[in-house]
Amino acid sequence: MEAQGRAIAQQFVQSYHPYTGIFTVRNTQSPNVEPLLDILRPSGKQYSTRELELGSFFSVRRFAGDINAQVASGALKPIKALVLNAGYQSQLGQKFTKDGYEVTFQVNYLANFLLVLLLLESMDKENGRIIFISSWTHDPANSYNRGLKLKKTMWRPVSDIARPAQADGKGLANQAGMRRYAESKLWLMMFMYELQRRIDATQDLSDISVLSVDPGGIFTTDIMRDNLWVFRVPLRKMFQVLTPCFQHLSPNGYLRTADKSARDVMNACFGNDESILGKSPKALYINGSAVKQSSMESRDQQKQNLLWKGSVKLLDLDLSETALV
pTM here? Predict the structure, then answer.
């Protein structure tokens, strides 16, 4: 589990909330899980670690089925907060999952689409919140993105995104990888709006909130684990030194510590400060601790609907599998 996930776990064990935490990892037997367990074991909190591989729709369905069965039986209480924290970024060219889709698209967006829809039946129907981890990269107009060379309009047909017809051009793998990451965050933002509308139209689910939290730049994570170490390691060390200084000057600015961002995520999950989120928060883009407006393209309802329909088709998903009407 990467740094932000561990920071969220740390905030969970330090909180007064009496909930059971379920933390997903790709492999529960991996030594990479030990830092997470070192946080959870001494806490006295109720928790479990479960395997979930977003690069496999079979894994997503198996995980969701297990959770739904446990909630239905009463072994688990309904889900108060569902945090979609996993992320992937590669600048070494295109890769594809066993399901046949481009990895960034599936891991960052499509698998989350499937997971959320399958788990809707197990959400707390009165106070449940679904939290997407967003990024300023979804917005080409954001000044932080000047170096990314993002197109003003990033929208493309879903089928073209899932299975790109062309490989990255020679020498363009870095730029293409950043573009794919930015696009995946745009799709998540669009999904937030479309999902909230459909939840609001479903009487049994209409009190559930769907929110997006932008954690800022956290350069201590392993999100770039597939990138060349010659870039990854020096950048990580440099930003570990710079980040606290930048955050002190601008708490919701370009660079933020994993701890600060984890607090913001926890506030989105359980916060009740009406001065920040309002009385009944719905479809909000929260940049750190401040509600902001997402990109113009992300708010295009026609594109949101096209993305929804295209995603359902790619997954061959029967909406009767979900709790939506």
Answer: 0.90
